[in-house]
Amino acid sequence: EDKVVQSPLSLVVHEGDTVTLNCSYEVTNFRSLLWYKQEKKAPTFLFMLTSSGIEKKSGRLSSILDKKELFSILNITATQTGDSAVYLCAVDNYGQNFVFGPGTRLSVLP
Amino acid sequence: GAVVSQHPSWVICKSGTSVKIECRSLDFQATTMFWYRQFPKQSLMLMATSNEGSKATYEQGVEKDKFLINHASLTLSTLTVTSAHPEDSSFYICSAQQLQTEAFFGQGTRLTVV
Question: Does residue A14 carry a pLDDT above 70?
Fold first, then answer.
């Protein structure tokens, strides 16, 4: 059965801290791994990763994929209160569907 | 990023009536559209996958006669909740994908059945 596991499920940090969110997966036909940020409503796209070892960066956020060990991490440096959200990891099961993890609820305190 | 528009953003309906939710890709052709349901404080649950011009593929446990999905064009998919009941009240989100790219989400629709 295809599955995506995220850890931790929730995390509370203070502004300025650096956080690392984890995502591991088991799917039959991996095509890509995606990270989304979900605040009050629909998720917004952050990164799509298809190749191992290539870091993607966007401002204070970065992510990398390890296809051998079947996991990805999302790093957020110098966190701000606006980073508080649920971060979802999803795996594209070769166009059949997207398998979502349970999400990591990040709370950044001032 | 690409824009996916979902309408309506919220709807209240009476028990027993049907509700239609639209999902449109505004600036790209969505070969595949996905419909999700999200319960409070839970992750997205995939309901069905639809490819343009084909019948939708429903996930196990999702009643296809209750949740009718139509993907008649490359820019529009609809989800109709038939004979809605209070337990159908939820947040429904669609996402659209063009070939081997990332999926973009609509704004979501909060359905309340009274």
Answer: yes
- Find out whether A25 and A3 touch, Cβ atoms under 8 Å: yes
- Which of A32, A45, A48, A65 is the best mutation test for B, with the most CBs of B within 10 A? A45
Residue A22: CB atoms within 10 A of its CB come to 15
Query: Is the separation of the CB atoms in B47 and B67 below 8 Å?
Result: yes
Burial class (CB in 10 A: 0-12, 13-18, 19+), B105: buried
Q: Which of A82, A88, A84 is nearest to A101 (CA)?
A: A88
For residue range A60-105, what is the model confidence (pLDDT) as tens digits?
Answer: 999 999 999 999 999 999 999 999 999 999 998 775 677 888 899 9
Q: Are B103 and B23 in contact (CB under 8 A)?
A: no
Residue identified by tokens 């609509």 is B106
**Residue in B with minimal Cα distance to A95:** B100
Percentage of chain B exceeding pLDDT 90? 53
> What is the structure's pLDDT at A95?
57
Residues in contact with B41: Cβ distance below 8 Å, sequence separation at least 6, in sequence order: none
Q: Which of A46, A88, A98, A99 to mutate to test the interface with B (most CBs of B within 10 A)?
A: A98
DSSP assignment letter at A95: T
Percent of chain A scoring above 90 in pLDDT: 71
The separation between the first and the last C-alpha atoms of chain B, rounded to the nearest angstrom, is 36
* Residue B84: burial class (beta carbons within 10 Å; 0-12, 13-18, 19+): buried
Quote the CA–CA distance of A63 and A53 in Å, as a whole number.
10
